[in-house]
Amino acid sequence: MDRHELTDRVKRRLRRAPPPLDESAFAAHAAVAELARHGPAPLTPPAHDGTSGPLEVAIVIPWFPRGGGGHATIFNLVRGLEARGHRCSIWMDDPTGRHADLPDDGAVGRALRREFGDVAAPIRRGFDAWRGAEVVLATSWPTAYRVQLLERCGARAYLVQDHEPEFHATSAEAIWAAATYRAGFHCIAASRWLAALLRDEYGASVSHFDLGIDHGRYSAGPGRSERALRVLFYARPSTPRRAVPLGLFALAELHRRRPGVELELFGSRAEVPTPFPSRQLGLLSADELAAAYRGATTGMVLSLTNPSLVPQEMLACGLPCVDVDRPSTRSEWGPSDAVELAAFDPAAIADALERLLDQRELWERRSAAGVAWAAGRTWPRAAAQVEAGLRAAFPARR
Q1: Which of 37, 46, 86, 298 has the most beta carbons within 10 angstroms of its beta carbon?
Q2: What pLDDT digit, counting tens, does each position of 223-251 carry?
Q3: What is the rounded distance in angstroms from the CA atom of residue 27 to the CA atom of residue 177?
Q4: 299: which strand partners?
């Protein structure tokens, strides 16, 4: 624990309990109501047309959970943009006070850097220090409302990592989320499938980027004969689009057929109840994840919307994996021969897992195809694609 982290902890204890969360709609969605009253702030004439040279990019992020893949992606992209010469700043929008125990910019910045890695960008809590930017980037549907209210911006863009209306039941939140894709942003989508959805369903101005992989950490592991007979399941119940109940039914069927196969679950701080013997790994560090991927025979990650980072990091480690056959996964994995796609059915998923456990030739083919597919996915490449999207936001304003 470094000196700053210790100081932050002592300050939190001296302040006693932080103020309670205010998760009312009036707090959580205040920007929605403010935008409805006043409309978006006018864009200011940019100093240049954005086609060349370094950009001043302000990235607006929501509150952050531990191990959040969306925030990890944002920080990887910020590092990539900074390496390309752009001046970035990060602004955390926390209207409900989830991080009330982090009272100032310094504490927020240290917490974010500990969790997601270092960046040169200054990190701000709230917008008291806001002075404008050449281009401002929203990163979630609530921040898309806040971004439209910010003044002195030359252009607005929107980093879209998933189809967020599907995060909600039929509700005001789902409709508000969908409305952000029609709000005039240039959207930078985290897959070709998602870009096509935003363009075809919402008429959005859109480009795409491909999620990167840290190849220094996630690299090919041993061959099939050196791996344990083990299935590694990304089980994160707090993210319903990862279809954890479906995966548990599939593993229960696999255990009925093959009781000797080890079953490991990861991705959740709390233990996930299972009707079969399992080892619960919880939240793992990046290095622990890489070691787990290199030690298992088969991975399983189920994606009902945009695929996550997890399966591609498995592929980089030579771990073949099973995903559910959906338009989004078919678009991402279908042409690659790297992933075993299964119907939305527990028995079909168990069949797919068994094939990878039993058929050495299939395992070797999927493993080699996965390593080859992953080789082209890097964070510098992703940052270059996002840079192109940021530049596209300038003509989009016209």
Answers
A1: 298
A2: 998 999 999 999 999 999 999 999 999 99
A3: 16
A4: 232, 321
Which CA distances in Å does 84 have to 58, 132, 243, 306, 379? 15, 21, 37, 27, 12
Measured at the CA of 150, the angle between CA 147 and CA 155, to 5 degrees, comes to 70
Q: What is the CATH number of domain 224-375?
A: 3.40.50.2000
Chain-centre distance for alpha carbon 371: 21
Longest dimension (CA), the chain: 66
Eight-state DSSP code of residue 45: P
CA distances from 300 to 199, 252, 314 (A): 30, 14, 9
Instruction: Please state whether the predicted TM-score (pTM) of the whole model is above 0.90.
Output: yes
Residues in the chain: 398
DSSP 169: S
Say which residue the tokens 């309670």 belong to.
Answer: 20
- Classified by CATH at the fold level, domain 12-212+380-396 comes out as Rossmann fold (3.40.50)
